[in-house]
Please model this.
Amino acid sequence: QVQLVESGGGLVRAGGSLTLSCAASRRTFTAYNMGWFRQAPGKEREFVAGITWSGGSTRYSDSVKGRFTISRDNAKNTVYLRINSLQPEDTAVYYCTAGAGRVVITTVYEYWGQGIQVTVSS
Model:
């Protein structure tokens, strides 16, 4: 079992930046690929970014490419999501997730955090 706890969300003005963090409970953090999803009000949860266990490969949704950066620090059992140039449409609950897979696109996400709210004001 892996417990994931997100932090770093909040209210931000459009054009601003923030970094979400996700701390994992388990020492075998490096066994998992990690990802971030988000769910806006009235919409389905969508994939935002993913990173392989080594950090050697990342993948982003087209809607965030160039503005979001996912990274991980395996020594700290933590994955990050840096968000630049925030837009009102980035307002959502952001979820951290962990799963197994050879590459990001085939990862099956098994464990989920409770989610953290990011609100972007115009």
Notes: The mean pLDDT is 95. DSSP finds no helices and eleven strands in the chain. Residues 64 and 71 are 15 Å apart (CA to CA).
